[in-house]
Design goal:
This protein is mainly beta. It has two helices and ten strands; from the N terminus they run E-E-E-E-E-E-H-E-E-E-H-E. Strands 1, 2, 3, 4, 5, 6, 7, 8, 9 and 10 form a ten-stranded mixed beta sheet that branches.
Length: 168
């Protein structure tokens, strides 16, 4: 009698918008790792300029910031030479801080999160660090997935371009 196949997660990332968590399935045998996150204040959605977090199947297209100090400030995916501090926050209160690491996502579903008007990559949807004063577990971002700086650095060191990402 054939045995029922056991469902074993393949390496990948799953982001739950309702639970505000990111789960990393490192490989077929490792225990999943769970991280609190903060996704879009505007909720789920794929439209350009919506301020929403896109749903569906994605993959990591690019990674930026490996080896840089925690709290490195990025603008347009380039380190500014600044390290985030309370003084810097007061100096630039309007900035949407992208810190420490950038894990840039690309959609896989044509017409949903890939293509004209809905493209996650062209919308610059990242998993990235944020000031540690920002709450996790509460939707507050402009569309990206925010993480604690130590968590995003740990995640960065465990993933690679091409790893699948599902956002539900």
């Amino acid at each position: 009698m054939p045995r029922n196949p056991v469902s074993i997660p393949v390496p990948g990332i799953e982001i739950s918008l309702s639970a505000q968590t990111l789960t990393l399935f490192p490989d077929d045998t490792s225990t999943p790792l769970y991280y609190p996150v903060s996704t879009a204040l505007n909720g789920p959605g794929e439209r350009q300029s919506s301020g929403c977090t896109p749903t569906g199947r994605h993959y990591v297209r690019a990674m930026v910031g490996g080896g840089l100090p925690l709290n490195t400030v990025f603008i347009a995916r380039r380190p500014t030479g600044e390290v985030y501090s309370e003084r810097l926050a007061h100096q630039f209160p309007e900035r949407d801080w992208i810190l420490s690491r950038i894990i840039w996502l690309c959609g896989l579903e044509l017409g949903k999160n890939r293509g004209s008007g809905v493209d996650s990559f062209r919308r610059f949807i990242y998993i990235h660090g944020t000031p540690d004063t920002e709450p996790m577990g509460v939707p507050r971002s402009h569309g990206c997935i925010r993480m604690r700086n130590t968590d995003v650095a740990e995640l960065y060191d465990r993933v690679w371009p091409g790893i699948p990402v599902t956002i539900r």
